[in-house]
Amino acid sequence: MNATAQHQNIALKVMIIDDDEFQIEFVSELLSELGISQIISASGGKSGLDIFDKTQKKPDLLICDIQMPDIDGFEFMRALGERNYQGGVVLMSGQGAKVLYTASLVAQLSRQNFLGTIEKPMQKSALEKVISQLLNS
Question: Which listed site, 59, 61, 76, 97, has its alpha carbon 20 to 30 Å from 42?
């Protein structure tokens, strides 16, 4: 993304699912800096599915934590598959490379538009890469 693209409003709707409010705020801030203003969030997987089901225009991108107490990222992905969700999916985790690798294998098997995994704390550059991947697909 070039410098001018960063200041444009990118017409993507993004949903963040995490049981940690700080992470939600942090990722929302990064998305805003990248020009994305349509951001919805859910505290945990169960709440995430409820909000997802009630949202008329489904998000273009879902950023989901892997480890959550009620419904984890894997169960969330399976539920999205059952709903035939067509948008992009990114899984994030603070649990290290091994968990992220396993997550990417599971995600690829779930027939989603899986864009990758991002380690916490999320880097703006990693998020930017995923967004341009989504925009160019």
Answer: 97
C-alpha separations of 76 from 11, 26, 44, 49, 114 in Å: 25, 21, 10, 7, 13
Instruction: Give the residue from 38, 14, 41 showing the smallest Cα distance to 25.
Output: 41
Residue that the structure tokens 């994030």 belong to: 92
Domains of the chain: 10-132 (3.40.50.2300)
pTM metric for this prediction: 0.89
Which tens digit of pLDDT belongs to each residue from 16-71? 999 999 999 999 999 999 999 999 999 999 999 999 999 999 999 999 999 999 99
CA-closest candidate to residue 77, choices 21, 123, 117, 40:
117
